[in-house]
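ok so i was messing around last nite and threw this chain in just to see what happens. nothing serious, just curious
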Amino acid sequence: MSSRGLALAPPAKNVVVYRNGDPFFPGRKVVVNQRRFLTFEAFLNEVTKSVRAPLAVRNLYTLRHGHRVAELGDLQDGCQYVAAGFEKFKRLDYLNHGRKEFRGTRNSDGLQWLAFFPTFHSCRNTGSSHALGCFYCSVFRNGDLLSPPFPLPLSKSTPLQWDALLATLTEKADLRSGAVNKLCRLDGTQVSAGEELVNGDYYVAVGNEEYKKLPYFELLVPQDSACRTLWYVD
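result:
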């Protein structure tokens, strides 16, 4: 009787799940076993832990087209999916880790950002971004030695409002502790104004908690990575 039950049980499926809106997350392999997960919600709870999502995963989307997955039976073996909470699906190039595409997006300066790549140490002090009318920093998440730094492109021509910058950092960093309240250098000293930011340098986004002095740069920045490139048109 038990052998018949095993024969009738649906085979396990292997899928790869990415974090919604995170272009640097390499994806996590998850085994879809319907004998283990009796409900789709139970599977989503496992995905939440597997991808270390800051909030509970409540939706899965297909990688290419962003179609919502409604139940376990809809998952296909060997396919990739994007895990999200209640927010909308964010269309990124998840397979090419570190590349994020913006299509038709214009900022207040009328510049269209086509793509950017992660900032690494080999780009520092090149000065190339200054020729493009912008500069950039890379930002770690306080106490997080699993997530690589995210790039923070800034305009030279637009005055930097500190509250607006913290709001942008809050959205990008998505700290478990909540909003970003301060930005620190790697030695722990606090930055208090946009004029103090240095092109190509690395910083740490911090919430209400104390700054955690960890080897962010040594552990999270690949030593042989290519430079980040910024492209824009007037």
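not much to say yet. Confidence is low (pLDDT under 50) at residues 98-132, 224-234.
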